[in-house]
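COMPLEX REQUEST
Ligand: 2'-deoxycytidine-5'-monophosphate
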Amino acid sequence: MTGPLVVAIDGPSGVGKSTVGRELARRLGIPYLDTGAMYRAIGLLAERNGIALPIADPDQVVALTSAADVRVTGTESDARTFLDGEDVSVEIRRPSISLYASAVSAIPGVRRQLASFQRRLALSGGGVLEGRDIGTKVVPETPAKFFLDASLDVRARRRHLELEAKGKPEPFDKVRGEMEQRDRADSTRSDSPLRCDESYVRLDTSDLNPGEVVERCLAALGSLPGKPESQVGESG
Ligand code: DC
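STATUS: Structure written out below.
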């Protein structure tokens, strides 16, 4: 059974997954889904409920997740995130929420709920999905998987400049330290850790600009067996 095109983009924080994912979705004319935004929304919910880090009672966060209504708009030009109807797109980008998102994403009961929601969205309408476990857990059967990577220093420098450009500068060492901490947590957690295997096309983006990464992804998609329309379905 063939289904809609689903492109998985995984990789560590600050590697350019969102920039590349949005442009790729635009070029392919398919939805764009930032799955990290959903973990961020649950992280924000945990913070608003006064839950401290490290999280002492994961079941409390699982219960909050079950009761929450998290939505992301699935287009590259309007990728917004709503938590119980409130537009939280800006608030979830706060650095403290990055740490909360990483902490809630290590909780299996949270992952189960968000990953199955993401899978349903992917199978119903296709799309470019970016995150940490898209190619390993959410839609492992898609042949279109990219793992973007770059050194910690390169990624931290990019994030540092991005924060400066947004008028919210943070010291470089702080940005680098938090990124390192988050990468370690995301790659060593027991449920769905970030990892690249041979089913991915791995791209080191250290010396590439986003446009070049997009072109490489499009070229790789063009050479997939059966080409991009062949893709995923309930029966794989
Ligand atoms: O991509 P991001 O930085 O917005 O993601 C926030 C956190 O959510 C990140 O630390 C890891 C987690 N995450 C995840 O575990 N699985 C995903 N598919 C996406 C994000």
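REMARKS: The radius of gyration is 17 Å. The mean pLDDT is 93.
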